[in-house]
Write a structure and sequence with these properties.
This protein is mainly α. It has one domain (about 5-315). The chain has 14 helices and three strands. A three-stranded mixed beta sheet has the order 1-3-2. The longest helix has 27 residues, at about 265-290. The termini are far apart. Residues about 1-10 have low confidence and may be disordered.
């Protein structure tokens, strides 16, 4: 890990666009200790078993059929950066068309901020279900990643067994696979809203409607995963949530500021708001009834319904 190498990569940013993604990835890798993915045979079996058990339990409990992603990887932090830099580039392509004044200065600043985001996320992501939104190939398979050094570090900091914590994370990420498997239309729905919102930014406008619809859909995605994660998990989990919440509250002001800038506070709000909605729906109709949200786009809750589940229950037949 070398701050000097990271800074040098950013200042050497080149190319015609406002972000040099190769330099951003190099700078992020230089700033972050990759950690180790030297797994014992038992650990490798553990990851595989957790994912398979999560698939079976979630399918049975939620009443949805789905396949696991074609790619399931246990990664270290540099692996995660390499896997995600292409995603960053795809998502920000519409905005990159506006380089503005002083393109070389802008390129250095943009490359540096992108490297910072990649490095921070690589140091904190535990697991990731990647639907590969906006991929060029329609045949691009979805992927599931576990960042092993982060799982080990956070489990130790929480004072919980690594194996139990890893299994809980696996249930959450496989729950996302269940959503996208049960709703073949979901990827296109999210992509359309993202393209509309980012294209507007590229034109110097803010399409609030597109971003509100995207936020509403992502709140449903995260909330359902939280519901399924808890109700399908085959062990106690209340203490895990309590310790994670306590750790989050104990973050320092700098960490809280960085998370706010990267939108991670919004993601937490999506978890909480979405889970409250689905908990209420599942209490009335069961988890299979809650899974009806994925039958068609019209079944997604509206922004108002997220805070008033009874309105959704009245609109969508049981």
């Amino acid at each position: 890990m070398s701050l000097y190498e990271s800074v040098r990569a950013v200042t050497a940013a080149s190319g015609d666009g406002p972000i040099d993604w190769a330099a951003a990835a190099a700078a992020a890798r230089a700033a972050v200790d990759p950690g180790s993915v030297e797994l014992s045979a038992a650990q490798r079996r553990g990851y595989a078993t957790d994912v398979e058990d999560a698939r079976d339990r979630i399918g049975a409990v939620a009443g949805v059929g789905f396949d696991l992603p074609g790619t399931v990887e246990v990664q270290h932090r540099h692996h995660w950066i390499d896997a995600n830099v292409a995603t960053f580039e795809r998502l920000l392509a519409p905005v990159e068309t506006r380089a503005g004044l002083l393109p070389r200065v802008a390129r250095t600043l943009n490359t540096g901020s992108s490297a910072f985001a990649l490095a921070f996320l690589a140091s904190n992501v535990l697991g990731q279900y990647d639907p590969l939104l906006l991929a060029e190939s329609e045949d691009a398979g979805h992927a599931l990643y576990f960042v092993h050094p982060n799982i080990r570090r956070i489990a130790a900091s929480l004072g919980v067994p690594e194996e139990r914590f890893r299994r809980w994370i696996a249930f959450h990420e496989v729950a996302h696979a269940a959503e996208f498997g049960a709703a073949p239309w979901l990827s296109e729905h999210l992509e359309t809203r993202m393209e509309e919102g980012l294209a507007a930014l590229g034109d110097g406008r803010i399409d609030w409607s597109a971003f509100r619809e995207l936020d509403t859909a992502m709140t449903a995605v995260e909330g359902y995963a939280e519901l399924v994660m808890d109700r399908a998990f085959d062990d106690e989990y209340a203490d895990l949530r309590e310790r994670i919440d306590a750790r989050r509250r104990g973050r320092g002001p700098i960490a809280r500021f960085v998370r706010r800038v990267l939108g991670l506070g919004l993601k937490r709000r999506q978890y909480e708001r979405g889970k409250a909605f689905f908990d209420r729906v599942a209490d009335v109709r069961g988890i299979e009834g809650a899974s009806r949200v994925w039958e068609r786009p019209e079944n997604l809750p509206s922004r108002a319904e997220l805070d008033d589940p009874t309105a959704w229950l009245a609109r969508v037949p049981g």
